[in-house]
Amino acid sequence: MSKIITISRQYASGGSEIGRRVAKLLGIPYYDRTIIDITAKESGFSPEYIEKIEQSATASLLYNLSVGGIYCQPLSDQLFVAQCNVIRALADNGPCIIVGRCADYVLRKDYDCFNVFIRSDDKFRIDRIVEFDKVSEQEALNIIRQKDKARRKHYKYYTDSDWGNVTNYDLSLNTAVFGFDKAAQIIADAVSCNK
Length: 195
Description:
Blueprint: E1 4-9, H1 15-26, E2 30-31, H2 33-43, H3 47-54, H4 61-68, H5 75-92, E3 96-99, H6 103-106, E4 113-119, H7 122-133, H8 137-159, E5 171-174, H9 175-193
């Protein structure tokens, strides 16, 4: 198997958990938060700061001026480029799972990728957030809307494509229908069939 598996996901749909399970099934490395940690080490910024910046990309002239002047690349763009370099370096090491960070777009030209989108219905996602974050259902719904909006905006800003658009992915799975184990097995089987 020579493929890099990229997983994009709706917030609280279980994409990260599924990615870990697929990695275990296939015996390949899994990268998610690791990308932020490596970028932080190389850039000197904290992982928390990078995570905050990546969720607030903007093309605002005032923002661009405030972070470095008219001739400088915005900080969010500099960090995105740094993350792209990390993603490519990880992909250069061979088959792996990369979750989020526009990896499907970053690797689209030079790597053999299998791109997956994980989604679920609101009830499934709300139940997960209520259980893990101990918030009300309304607060959970607000978190979902906010996080998905940020992901959509981030993806659009850096790829000029629509996050979640089925034409960007080889496979889209609903975790409320399949659950985590079955979804992971479907992805592993699909990648194995596409060698």
